[in-house]
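JOB MANIFEST
job_type = single_chain_structure
chain_count = 1
residues = 193
[input]
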Amino acid sequence: MPRAPKGFDFTGAMRAICADIARRLPPLSHVDVDRVAIGACRTRNGSAHGVFATLTPLRFAGGEEFQNVRGRRRRIEPILDSDGREFLYLLNFYIPRFLDLPLEEKLSTIVHELWHIGPRFDGDLRRHAGRCYAHGHSKKAYDDEMDRLTRDWLAADPPHHLYEFLQHSFEELIAEVGPLRATRWPAPKIVPV
């Protein structure tokens, strides 16, 4: 019988947290975490500044699978799960930068990215009115709302073991559990059909 690779399954642990957040927070109940590809990207340097996580929609605006550009039909190259079913979103965490945040900022980052998933769960983003469709008219108001939702999740008493590993920095976590194992997904490309 083959042995499982040593180390900590970061992707599995993040999937479990995302599923619990979607289950406990009514505004995120539309999120089917099984249809979200979750992975990690390595940051180029140890800088604390930059992107902590990203959510990439795998459909065009309105959940459209295809788009015509200059007379050519295109689609976003699908990312498939192990059963051959298409994911609708790609959620990546940037390591070690994400893991070096304080615990509540890590949790708020997760909620922030899940909030971007459109309420129709059709592969498109949640779109706010106005020019700044991703975060609305005020990034500060958006961040305050994500912090409130994070506090709501913690107040719902999720199992501590789900997010206990997030109490550690990157270096502390590696010292505690060994190397991290995480799925790395290729960047989705727009391809002609």
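[summary]
The helical segments are 10-24, 103-115, 139-155, 160-163, 170-177.
Residues 8-192 form one domain.
exit_status = 0
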